[in-house]
Write a structure and sequence with these properties.
By secondary structure, the protein is mainly α. Helices cover about 60% and strands about 0% of the residues. It is built from 2 helices and no strands.
């Protein structure tokens, strides 16, 4: 067997594995589309910006005497 044959033999393994990988990635992407992963991309960013930063006075907190 020459060195050229061993280079071609690896293609018999890599081509089917790459095709399988494409189908697996496509299936995962299709699942993410149908399960609503990309429905609201802007909402979480706006919720962080519009977060109410005021703190509520807790009943357990001691009263300050000022």
């Amino acid at each position: 067997m020459s060195s050229m044959d061993s280079g071609m033999d690896i293609l018999y393994l890599l081509v089917p594995m790459s095709i399988l990988l494409v189908f697996v990635i496509g299936a995962i992407f299709w699942w993410s589309l149908t399960s609503g992963q990309f429905d609201d991309l802007d909402g979480p960013g706006y919720r962080v910006l519009m977060d109410d930063d005021t703190t509520k006075k807790s009943d357990d907190a001691p009263e300050s005497s000022q």
